[in-house]
Amino acid sequence: MSLTDLKRRKKKSHQDCISVDDFIEDANSYAFGKPSAVSRNRKKLRQAQLNGLDKHSTKIFKHATFSLTEDAITVLDELATQSKIAKSRLIRILIHDFFDLSDEERENVIGKGED
């Protein structure tokens, strides 16, 4: 399984219907080099979508590929749904928590783990 399987699926955006008159007016504006109303609305929509993922944030994420069992994938899906947290973020949280454990606690977790 790769991280592409863990990504949240983007919901398809509903395109607004425009009237024929608005379409013609927009075409005329385009022909005269004026900004179109439709493209302004699309820019606002794109900006709103990009606000969710800041590519220039201080945290740098790197793509990783790893394997999980079907049971682990099912549990991860349930955790993500219940907590409303992205699967990749859940994995980062779990890694951080595991790292913070003492050596003895890590051994106990590893001993209980299933492969």
Q: Summary?
A:
This is RepA domain protein. The chain has 115 residues and is mostly helical.
Describe the structure.
This protein is mainly α. The chain contains 5 helices and no strands. The chain has helices at 20-31, 37-52, 70-83, 87-100, 103-112. The mean pLDDT is 77. This is RepA domain protein. It comes from Shewanella woodyi (strain ATCC 51908 / MS32).
* Rg value: 23 Å
Mean pLDDT equals 77
Distance between the termini: 15 Å
Structural class: mainly alpha
How many helix segments? 5
Main sheet properties: none
Helical content (DSSP H or I, runs of 4+) = 55-70%
Described by the principal axes of the CA atoms, the overall outline is elongated
Protein name: RepA domain protein
Record the SSE blueprint.
Elements: H1 20-31, H2 37-52, H3 70-83, H4 87-100, H5 103-112
Q: What are its keywords?
A:
115 residues; mainly alpha; RepA domain protein
